[in-house]
Amino acid sequence: MNQHIRFKGSIIRTLALMLVLMLAACENDIQVVNSITSATEKQLPLDSEKDVEMLYSDSAVVRARLTAPVLDHYAGKKNYTEMPKGMLVIFYDAQKKEQNRLKADYGIGYDNTGNGMDKMEAKRHVVVVNEKGDKLETEHLTWDATTKQIYTDEFVKITTKDKTIWGTGLKANQDFSEYEIKNPQGELQVDDKDLNNDQTGQKGEQKTE
After folding, report:
1. Is pLDDT above 90 for 104?
2. What is the pLDDT confidence band of residue 69, given thresholds at 50, 70 and 90?
3. Which positions ≥6 away from 107 have C-beta within 8 Å?
4. Cα–Cα distance between 181 and 163 in angstroms, integer?
5. What is the CA radius of gyration of the chain?
6. What is the DSSP letter of 44?
7. pTM
8. How far is C-alpha 74 from the chain's CA centre?
9. How far apart are CA 180 and CA 187, in angstroms?
């Protein structure tokens, strides 16, 4: 009698285990479907435009102009705009004079306030050139329209008329007139003599930290 009871108990445990496995399999199937659905939704923009020009104003004054060959709008928990084929952003001062340019192979902008793009990430071959000719090169740069700053934690290289400096991490104002490399790693000084003899292959003095 006791053996028969143990046998029935083992059947019940087996059935319970099978039920648990079936529920887990169903849950996994739902997760797979959800992941596929999410991926499909991500690939389909709400709207797509070509040869776009967008103006950004502050107190009725145009402070930036963005152009892109393709601009895709996405809507969801967070609205964002993607520029998969590159972009160019030109920044202006209050007198509408060009201050600097930002160019990249890819861009994505976020609308966190509902008032338009307030933060943008530039990725892949990012180049910023200010009105003095100083050039910043990196692979990832963020522009915050609210704080009017640009920053990155990636490797950066800055080239001016008399030196080249590099390191990791950077914080600057959006016109790139003032900047700071968080972890400077090296500097190459170029004086007038080096510039005059550049064609002869002479090099400037290299400094490393």
Report:
1. yes
2. very high
3. 68, 82, 83, 86, 87, 120, 121, 122, 123
4. 14
5. 28
6. S
7. 0.69
8. 16
9. 14
